[in-house]
C-alpha cells in the first residue's frame, strides 16, 4: 500500500495545460484512438477538460510546451491517477470498520492506519516486500516496453513512442474500451477527472493519518478505535 500511496504524491497537475496556437501536427500517427495532435487546441487536443473549470492552467505550466512533453505529462497524470484511485479505495477498505486485509491482518487484530501497514509487514516478513517490488517492477517494465521509445538516435529522457497514446497500455481484460473516438475521449475524460479527485483525496487522507495517526473512519467518528500501537512490531 505504501508504494501506491507514495505514488499519489507525484501528481502531474500540468498535464492538462494549454498550448500555443499554431499548426496541426503531422509528425505523429493520426490513428491514436482518433486523436490528431493539434497545436492550436487546448493541450494539443487531448481530452480531460470539463466545465465549469474547463481549460484549467492558472500557472501556465504548459505554455509553449512541445508535443512530446505534453504527452509525457498526460502519461504521468493518467498513471498516477490510476494508482491514486486504487490507493484511495484501498485505504478505506483495509481500515476500520471494513478491515478487509487478507494479506496483512492477523487474528482479526486492528493493525492501525494504512500508511504504516507495509512498515509492519517489513518488520515481520521482509521477503514479502521483495515480491511486491518485483511485481511493481514487472508492471512498469511492461509499460516501458509498450509506450517508451528506445534509447537510440535522437533520444530524450522518458520519451514516448510517436504512435503511443498516453495511458493506453493495452490492458483491457473486460473489453470496456470504446472503438468510437468520441466515446473513447469521453471515457478518458471521466478517468482523468476521477484520477485527479483521487490524487487530492488520497493525499488528504495520508496527511490526516500522518498528523494524528488515526484511521480515516475513526477520525470521522464513524468507527471504533480498536488500534493498540503496543501490539504491532513498529514504533508509532
Provide key terms for this protein:
6 helices; 236 residues; disordered N terminus; mainly alpha; globular
Helix/strand layout:
Blueprint: H1 2-8, H2 67-94, H3 117-124, H4 126-147, H5 181-212, H6 216-219
Helix pairs in contact: 1-2, 2-5, 3-4
- N- to C-terminal separation? 17 Å
- Give the number of helices: 6
Order of helices and strands: HHHHHH
Give the class from helix and strand content and strand pairing: mainly alpha
Radius of gyration: 21 Å
Q: What portion of the residues fall into strands of 2 or more residues? A: under 5%
Rounded mean pLDDT score:
82
- Poorly predicted residue ranges: 1-30
User: How many distinct beta strands?
Assistant: 0
Largest sheet report: none
The best one-word shape is: globular
Helix content: 40-55%
Model description:
It contains 6 helices and no strands. The protein has helices spanning 2-8, 67-94, 117-124, 126-147, 181-212, 216-219. Helix 1 (2-8) crosses helix 2, helix 2 crosses helix 5 and helix 3 (117-124) packs across helix 4. It is globular, with a radius of gyration of 21 Å. The two termini are 17 Å apart.
Brief account:
The chain is an all-alpha fold.
